[in-house]
Structures are given as C-alpha cells and as structure tokens.
Write a structure and sequence with these properties.
The complex is a heterodimer of chains A (433) and B (276). By secondary structure, chain A is of the alpha/beta class. Chain A has two domains: 191 residues, Periplasmic binding protein-like II (D-Maltodextrin-Binding Protein, domain 2); 220 residues, D-Maltodextrin-Binding Protein, domain 2, CATH 3.40.190. Chain A contains 19 helices and ten strands. The chains are: A alpha/beta (433), B mainly alpha (276).
Chain lengths: 433, 276
C-alpha cells in the first residue's frame, strides 16, 4: 500500500515537473467581441488542459490591426497569438509574417473547417489562420411589420422585393423605418456592405487589368438604388450609422429590415437587450437575378506571428480555441445559441445546433459567398466585400467617405462615383498597378 | 447705483462661469450617468438623463472581466515615476536657464517647446525599434522614460517661469553664506519654489495619466495602464457604451479625486506669474 502511494506521488511529481517545464505564458491579442470575451472566460480550461497560461490584450479593432501590423513588421514579438480577419490573412501570409498551420495534428480535423472559410484564410494551399468564428450577412426582418405591410418574405428575396417591402413598412411618423443599412464611412463599415451589394448588381472594383470600375453603369445602378432606398425608407442620419448604431435601432424596434452580419442574429433575438426578440426572422441577402447575392464573408481567425518565441504553446492554444471540443465546451456552459458560429461543418451537422433559429440561414449565407469569384464578371482579386491587397483599406475608406457624403446629401451619386474613380485610379497608379 | 452695477456684474460673471464649468464637465457627467444604465438604456433615443433604472451591473462585469488593480498600479507607477524623474532632471535645467542665462537660453527653450509640435506618430517606429533593441517593450520602465521625455519640455518651461519670479539676490545671499550649488538648489531654491513645483507635478501627473498614444502602442499585457483598460471595452460588433463608460469612470476616478483636493494648488500654480 505504502509502495503504491509512493509510486503515485512520485508519478504526480514527475508529471507536475514535466508540465511546468513546458508550461509557457502566451500573449493573445484580440478584439472585444462577445465570442472572444467568452473565450477569455474559459481560459482556465485551457490552462488546466495544457499547463500554459494566457495573458489577454483586448484592443479596439482598428487599434488592434495597427498594433499587430506594427509588431509583426518590426518583429517585436509582443504577441504569440493574434486575432485577425480574412482581409489581412492572405496579405500578411504573403509577407512571411504568419506561421503556417497546416501541421496541426489529425485530431484537429482541418478538413472539417467550412471550405469558404478555409479558402479565405489560406495562401497557396496553406492555412495561415484558424477560423474562430465566421460570418456572412443576411436580412433580419420584423415578422409583424412584414405581415402588416401585407407581404411575405421569401427565403431568397430580390432587391426589388426588399425595396418595395422597405417602402411599405416605413412609417416615419411613428419612427419606423423600412430598412437600416450601413452608412458610416470605412472600408469595414459602409464599403463592406456596398461592395457586397455591388456584387449582386454585377459591379466590380477592378477589371482584369486592375482598372477601377466606378465609372461603370453597374456601380451607378448600385449607388443610386442604395441612395434612393435609404432616402425613402432609411432612418435619419444614416450616414453615421455603422453596425452598432443599426443594431441599437433594430433592437429598439425602429427598423423593418436590417441587412448585416449574421452574428447580429444572436443579439436581436436576445430578449435581454432586444425589444423585438420574438418578432425577428431571417432571409438570405437579396439578389437581382444575376447569380450573385449581396452577402459578404468574414472570419475572425487566430494566427501566429512569425516573431513568436512560443510557437508550440501558441499552436496548442489555437488548436484548443478552434476545435470541435471547444464548441462543445461553450455549448455545455452557455447553450448552443452562444457557440461561435460559421467555422466548422460538424457544428451544422449537429442536431442540437440545428434547432438554433439562425443556424441554417447563417450556413446558407456563408456557403453562397465565394471569395475567389465574388461578382458576375471576372476579377483579378480575392475577397467578397474587400479586395485582398494592402492598398485596399486606405482606398476603400476614402471611397466610403465619398459615398457617405452622398448619403448625407452633400453630393450626388454621379459626383461621388467620379471622385471614387479618380482617387482609386490615382492610388492604384501610385502603388504600381 | 455703482453697487447694484457691481452686483449685477458679479451675478452675470457667476452665471457665465457656472455655465462654462458645466459645459466642460458635461461629457464627464454623461459618462458617469451612462455607466449606471443598461446597454439598451445607454443608446436610447431620446437620451435618458436621470429617469432610468440605475444599475451597478456594468461595474460588476468590468470588475469580473478585467484586473483593474493591475492597470491602476501601472498608471500610478508610470505617471508618478515619469513625473518625479522629470522634476529631478528639470530643476537643474530650469535653474541654469533662469539664473545663469546664456545667449542661447531663449532659443533652447523655444527649441524644447518645438519638440511638442512634432506629431507623435512620426517617431513611433524609431522608438518602437529602440524599445525592441533594449528590451523595453511592454515594461513600466520604458514607459516611464518615454513619458518623462514627452513631458520634460513642459516641466522645464513651467519651472523656468516660477524660478524667474524668485529674486536672484536670495540665491546670492545663500552663496555668500557659503552654500554649495547642491545646497543652494536643495535648501534654498526648491523650498521657495514649492508651490510652483507642486503644480508642475500635479499637471504633469495628470498629463501622463491621460496619455493614450504611447501607452497603447508600447504596451501589451504587462505594463498596460488604465488607458489600455478603457480601450479594451470598445467593440466593433455588439453594444458596449455602458460598459465602456463604467471602465472610463473607474479610470478617471482617481485623477478626479486628486484634482478635486488639489485644485487650489493647481489654480495657484497655473496662474502664478500670469498677472504682474
């Protein structure tokens, strides 16, 4: 008996020593989104499993992007794991700033990652960031207001239907606006929405020779349609509305429809914050019959910067945070509706998850977006609501300011498009395209 | 007649002063009020002023999610350390400029001030690389040095202004009595300039406390002060105003209290020498 317990104690000591010898403290940079905050709360589970400790640096999205770029480029080594998006991943991978994740063990089941996500986070067949959660965009609408307008929302509506419904639902005297769309300037704000919408109207950012296309009739149709719709059925001051502003309007019951990130579905159906939680339904983003829908594709993903000294521990963390087990862990603690969506096929095959009201529509939206073939005509770039080149963020933010000014009534659609064309051509020429 | 005119003027002055004071204080008041609202109330249209259900939920979420004391300690050490280090360096500098001016003193003073006009982002990358080289990234020592360098021109300028008010004859008398330069600085000049030094310390402590560019760019997990604590509550996807307001209120509370208790010294120091 005594021998047995001595052996057991010696074994435990050896294990503890071995674990502590390899135990590292890694620094993870992330944004303050609900799913990331939940992950921070579950860090102890990771520590218990691997012995590694995690220090979190939570930053505002744009600050994070700038900090991480600066640190990666200067090889500062301040972060071992960073949260990046689908836009940065191929660009940074090309620069040699990220470590490949293709060598994750078989148990990780890399083939279980949704193909659209894997494609957007890879370069030359190598995965450089593991999707923590993925999203597309879709229509969230008020079932009560739709019925009141005498309409029924199809699962896959056209823009004409949406525009008609928005005008019929609008009751400005009672502060009900048929449609709430992004108007705030920024490449990740109004330009994400407008680029995805433009795809469904057959417009594109560049032709095959990288020539800007804002002087094309398709862009004119897109922008005119958007401005007319927002003038007739949008809320006042829409040119300053981004995701959060529209979320708040929708939750207060002031929007008939809202086309935005699929991740918003869990917010608008949460009775704690939303006054319309039981009156919301979902539909695919609209199209114009040209074969492309106006939905985007995005992923918040975890990547390892090339300068890290703790590659093994960082990989273990990514493996844990983006695994099937992690999804089950969140479900066991907070329910299936709070599981980070849009990353793995197996999640959508799970019968428990299928009961979540927005699960199917999220998957259908993600599957209908194709980053390599985003619009009707051929393009030389990758990305649905963005163009994966380093110059895009700066150019699109400037173009976004022109379109936002047009929405605010400071200029016409033609003027905004002419300015967009001129500034894009100038920037692209300077960049050597 | 004259008396009623004076009274009337005083009333107008008081009303205007209160009006301006409230206008300046309003954003802080609004932040504090918002911190007691729910996220839905925080973005309510029309905005809710006092008629809402007050809640401490945001404070409890912030407490639960972040290690406030760690951020607070970093802020105290960075702001306090940089201010003290700055004072130690600035007193001799200001002394020489005030009492032993050379032909170039004015130019040097202006040149020092001109460094404040340089956009910080212009030197971010060189400083970042230096920090990597010397292992100062995400350390409190690194930030103490940077904060001190940033505020040094202001400290020297303020002390120079106060020292100029002190009659040079007193220092000469001390020298006649056999005081060394060190003794002259420590036992004669510094005690006479205490009000000026105190207000300089206070102002620079506040400036270093509120500085957000360098503290956000040069820290990660270990040395991050309260500015990084506030920044972590902004969210691109999800409502955050109430929680952000709670974090902001917790971050500004210490400095508000310090400012409240030392306002007399601050005002006296800042207006010292302004009217002759």
């Amino acid at each position: 008996m005594q021998i047995k317990s001595s052996v057991a104690i010696a074994g435990m000591l050896a294990f503890a020593t071995a674990t502590s010898a390899f135990a590292e403290t890694i620094t993870v940079a992330t944004v303050n989104n609900g799913d990331m905050i939940r992950m921070q709360g579950l860090t102890e589970e990771f520590t218990a499993k691997t012995g590694h400790k995690v220090e979190w640096v939570t930053l505002e999205e744009n600050v994070l992007r700038q900090r991480v770029t600066q640190d990666v480029a200067a090889k500062g080594g301040q972060f071992d794991v960073m949260t990046i998006g689908m836009y940065e991943t191929p660009i940074w991978a090309k620069q040699g700033w990220l470590l490949s994740l293709n060598d994750l063990p078989a148990s990780y089941d890399i083939d279980d990652i949704l193909p659209a996500m894997r494609g957007g986070l890879s370069l030359d067949g190598q995965l450089y960031a593991a999707p923590f959660y993925g999203e597309s965009s879709m229509i969230m609408y008020r079932t009560d207001l739709m019925s009141k307008a005498g309409l029924e929302m199809p699962d896959a509506p056209t823009w004409d239907f949406v525009a008609d419904a928005a005008r019929k639902m609008t009751d400005k005297d009672n502060e009900i606006y048929g449609i709430c769309l992004r108007g705030k300037a920024g490449w990740g704000e109004n330009m994400a929405f407008l680029t995805a919408t433009a795809n469904s109207f057959g417009a594109r950012w560049f032709d095959e020779d990288w020539k800007p296309q804002f002087d094309s009739p398709e862009w004119k149709t897109t922008l005119t349609f958007y401005l007319d719709l927002m003038t007739d059925a949008g809320p006042p001051g829409a040119s300053t509305n981004g995701f959060n502003e529209n979320l708040s309007l929708f939750q207060q019951g002031k929007c008939g429809m809202w086309i935005d990130a699929t991740v918003a579905a869990s917010f608008v159906t949460n009775p704690k914050d939303s006054t319309v939680a039981d009156k919301v339904s979902f539909a695919l983003a609209p199209d114009t019959g040209m074969g492309k829908r106006g939905n985007w594709l995005w992923a918040w993903a975890l990547a390892i910067p090339a300068g890290t000294q703790k590659e093994a521990a960082a990989k273990e963390f990514i493996q844990w945070a983006t695994s099937k087990d992690y999804l089950a862990l969140v479900a066991s603690k907070e329910g299936w509706a709070n599981v980070p969506p849009g990353s793995r096929k197996s999640l959508y095959e799970n019968p428990d998850y299928a009961k979540v009201p927005f699960a199917k529509m999220t998957l259908d939206s993600i599957n209908s977006a194709d980053p390599t073939n985003p619009t009707v005509k051929p393009v030389p770039y990758i990305g649905v609501q963005f163009v994966a080149i380093p110059e895009f963020a700066g150019i699109a933010t400037q173009v976004g300011q022109e379109f936002s000014a047009a929405l605010a009534g400071q200029q016409t659609a033609d003027e905004a498009l002419a300015k967009a064309q001129a500034l894009t051509a100038e920037e692209m020429e300077a960049a050597g395209y | 007649m004259a008396k009623s005119f004076t009274n009337q003027r005083m009333i107008i002055n008081t009303v205007v002063a209160w009006g301006i004071g409230l206008l300046i204080f309003f954003p802080i008041l609004w932040t504090i009020l918002t911190s007691f609202k729910t996220e839905a109330q925080a973005i309510n249209d029309p905005p809710l002023f006092l008629g809402f259900d007050w809640t401490l939920e945001n404070y409890s979420i912030v407490q639960e999610r972040s290690d406030y004391m760690r951020f607070l300690m970093n802020s105290v050490i960075i702001a306090g350390g940089s201010t003290l280090l700055g004072i130690v360096i600035a007193i001799p500098a200001a002394w020489s400029m005030a009492f032993v001016p050379s032909r170039r003193t004015k130019d040097i003073l202006l040149w020092m001030l001109s460094t404040k006009m340089l956009p910080a982002v212009g030197v971010l990358y060189p400083i970042y690389l230096l920090f990597i080289k010397f292992g100062l990234l995400d350390t409190r020592l690194g930030l103490v040095i940077v904060m001190m360098l940033i505020n040094l021109p202001i400290i020297v300028w303020m002390l120079y202004t106060y020292f100029r008010e002190i009659p040079v004859e007193i220092l000469e008398a001390a020298r006649m009595d056999g005081a060394s330069l060190r003794e002259e600085l420590i036992y004669v000049l510094t005690p006479m300039a205490i009000p000026g030094i105190a207000s300089t310390v206070l102002l620079n402590f506040i400036l270093a406390w509120n500085e957000a560019f360098w503290t956000l760019n040069l820290t990660a997990a270990k040395a991050a002060p309260l500015t990084a604590f506030i920044a972590s509550y902004s969210s691109p996807e999800g409502l955050f105003y109430a929680k952000l307001s709670a974090a902001s209120t917790m971050a500004i509370a210490p400095i508000l209290i310090l400012g409240w208790f030392s306002q007399k010294q601050l005002v006296r120091g800042l207006t010292f020498g302004a009217v002759k």
